[in-house]
Structure formats: structure tokens, C-alpha cells
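Input chain follows. Return C-alpha cells only.
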Amino acid sequence: LRHVEGLFDLYEENQRLRDDNARLQEWQVVARRLAVENTQLRGLTHYEPHGATFAISAQVIANSGGAFAHNVLVDAGSRDGVARGQAGVTGEGLIGRVAEVSSHSARVLLLGDVSSRIPVMLETSRSRALLVGANVGRPRLLHTLPGTRVTVSERIVTSGDGGAFPPGLPVGVVANVGDSVIEGQPFVDFDKLEFDRKKLYWKELS
């Protein structure tokens, strides 16, 4: 009899766990949908992340036009307050940094360029890394601490290390974790930058 009662209790416990798991999955779907909506609203309202002192709107007017050069030209320059080293972002996330500036325009080095080096942080593990462009394919995460557990879909944000960028700018997610290579997938679709009307350039706190 006790054996039967034990089996019945086990069945009830398993059923409760299944119900709890189903509820958690439902909340996960809701959370993901809200995250997408939040990102879209930030873009519409020109959301300013912590550490930004001002924003400059600009339009992409040309891209590199080459398979191995990843940069865009925007119609804002030094007369507008754009300076070398500033971060270029959209409502979706970081696109890169300002590499060259003239009085009326600026060249932005995108995350995918082999010359791009961005100090970042994995949002869940809080581990620091360097996001390095690869020209072909996705940028890679280098110099993570030994023993760091990196998981696919983990969000990547700027770390603020070295004062290069404000901390917390959305960058992308971990796309692939291999034996020797960790790849990141930026939030921004660089192939569609020329269709976006405005980009923002943030100056970090001094």
C-alpha cells in the first residue's frame, strides 16, 4: 500500500513540475516579446543609455562598397560635434566607432571590420571580453577569462573598460561557442544601414 501511495505522490509531483515548466515557458515567450518591443520603442524615442552626454543624429550616405572593408560614411562631422572614437548606435544597438572625421562628414568603422576592437561584457556571466571583427563572418569574442561559461544567445553589451564607450550599450548575442572560437551576432543588420534614416553618436562621460 505504501508503495502504491509513493507512486501516486511521485505522479502528482511530476505533474506539478510539468505544469510549472509550462508556465515558465509561457513567461519566457512573454519576456522575449517585451524585450523586442522595448528595443523598438527605444529606437523610436531616441533612447539614451547611461553614460551618454549628448546625441547627434546623422544619416548614412555611403558604404565601403567592398567585401573586405566594413565602414560607412555619415553626413555629420566636426561642425556637428562628432569626434573620433565616439560610438555609433541605432535603436537596435552598437554599429561601431567613429574612425575619421571631417567638417561635414565622418567615417564609422563597423563591428565586422578586422580593425574593430570593442571592450564588451557578457550580460549573464559578467565576464569581460574583446569583440574583434573578422571581415568575413561574425565578429569574435576573444580574451574571455579561463573557465568562463559562455552560452549561446547570451546578450553582449559594452563594458565601458578603458573609457572607450559608455557601459551597457547593446551589442548583440553569442551566436556560436566552439572549441577555439566564440562568435557574436550583432543586433544591427549592417546590410540595411543605408536604409535607416538616422544614427546616433554618443560621447562618453569624461
